[in-house]
Amino acid sequence: MSSYQVEGAFGRSPSIWDELSQRKGAIKDGSDASLADDFYHRYKEDIRLSKELGIQDFRLSFSPTRFFDENGNETVEGIHFYQEVIQEILRNGLRPVVTLYHWDLPCYLEKKGGFTSPEIVSFFTRYAEIVAEHFSSLVSSFITFNEPQCFLGIGYQRRDHAPSTYHTFEEMKRATHHVLLAHAHMYQVLKRANPHCEVSFVNTMNVPLPIKDNPLLLEKCRQKLFSIPKDETDFYSISIYLDPLVKGYYPEGFLPDNLKEGDLEFIQKSRPDYLGLNIYTGTYFTLDEKNQLVESSHVEKEEESDLFWLKRRPGSLYYGPKFFYERYRLPLVITENGGCYRDNLEEGQIHDAKRVLYLTSYLDSLKKAIEDHIDIRGYYYWSLLDNFEWAEGLSKRFGLLYVDYKDNLKRYRKDSFYAYQNIIKHWN
Ligand code: PNW
């Protein structure tokens, strides 16, 4: 789960998502996250439910807006609140996995240019120092950034995500480099505090899927996955982050103008311990008569979900990990995967057969990847709770637990909750 999507409790400094939510029409269903799931007050119940589900890791994010006030002065609220949450996770025998940035940037930083400004690097370094000082003895698994593809790609271009501002190609490249430098500083700070902790970096992608078994088609799908942006409207790339982090160089044709001597060496020293992959969907491709890659736009009815970009394409959990592992040779964790469907609450039950099918079919693919010796170390379902689905608002549901927004945020176990519980029990 992520702070902004579940916590509520707005008595903190404002973030870019608060600001976007106030713009008329920005959140499609008119909702906002001021209460969300009220995880801020109900975390004990939710952690207990996740223990009942049978998972081992509890992934959450810290909100920087609880560590800094609206002028950037340090506050203690986040330290106190998250220490209580982490203690509760540990008391339940679960392992906390903490993301430091899941999109809720303090507004004062955006006013200074957000990720296009070099100041962002010193901000994240200081933030990581505070986290390291207060949490290193409690948390041994960290993720620095969640999905730059979204917070840069969608926030700065498609612009239906915060901060919804336009940037040129050169500025986008600069922002990319700042994300990597910030990651590297955070990595070093966290490792200095505890050399045994693991630190990761999470990417998301739409996996190009070969429609049939054909080596040329497979190769072209792989190339498509790792292609670089052509201009500022095309920033959904993977290799611009992972090539520098893992291999130590930017892909050819992609050099930020703020790259300084020594930067790449420093970035590569902060190579993630494993790669976090958020894989939800894929797009089918085939070859035309000239052997060019062409999209196959056909969508089966049973592949559709309640979200425009999300088709049920279980093959993405086979080909995604395979392509990543073959290129980067690092252990992988599926840090997010989940289905968005409309749910009906009837007499306390939710028969979400589509979500059950989503989950089981994707896990079948993942099993296949593991059998093919792809080094997959973990799988996290997105998400435990229905929550604030960003620009879509509260009405798009991903949870294994239904949250009744009309009746005091009561939680109900969906059929998918029991299905997943059962899968976990019998895995292996
Ligand atoms: C992720 N896409 O976002 C985020 O990490 C979550 O916070 C979010 O709730 C979840 O997926 C479901 O949306 C994505 O367009 C947003 O391919 C968009 C895409 C992928 C991931």
Characteristics of this structure?
428 residues, alpha/beta, 8-stranded mixed β-sheet, two-stranded antiparallel sheet, globular, binds 4-nitrophenyl beta-D-glucopyranoside
Task: Give the SSE layout.
Elements: H1 3-6, H2 16-22, H3 39-53, E1 57-61, H4 77-91, E2 95-101, H5 107-111, H6 119-135, E3 141-146, H7 148-151, H8 154-158, H9 169-193, E4 198-210, H10 215-225, H11 239-247, H12 263-268, E5 275-287, E6 293-295, H13 316-328, E7 332-336, H14 353-371, E8 376-379, E9 401-404, E10 410-413, H15 415-426
Parallel strand pairs: 1-2, 2-3, 3-4, 4-5, 5-7, 7-8
Antiparallel strand pairs: 5-6, 9-10
Helix pairs in contact: 3-4, 6-9, 13-14, 14-15
The structure holds 4-nitrophenyl beta-D-glucopyranoside.
4-nitrophenyl beta-D-glucopyranoside is lined by residues 2, 5, 146-147, 150, 204, 206, 278, 280, 309, 336, 382, 389.
What can you tell me about this protein's structure?
The chain is 39% helix and 15% strand. The protein contains 15 helices and ten strands. Strands 1, 2, 3, 4, 5, 6, 7 and 8 form an eight-stranded mixed sheet that branches. A two-stranded antiparallel sheet has the order 9-10. The chain is globular, with a radius of gyration of 21 Å. The chain binds 4-nitrophenyl beta-D-glucopyranoside. 4-nitrophenyl beta-D-glucopyranoside (PNW) binds next to strand 4 and strand 5.
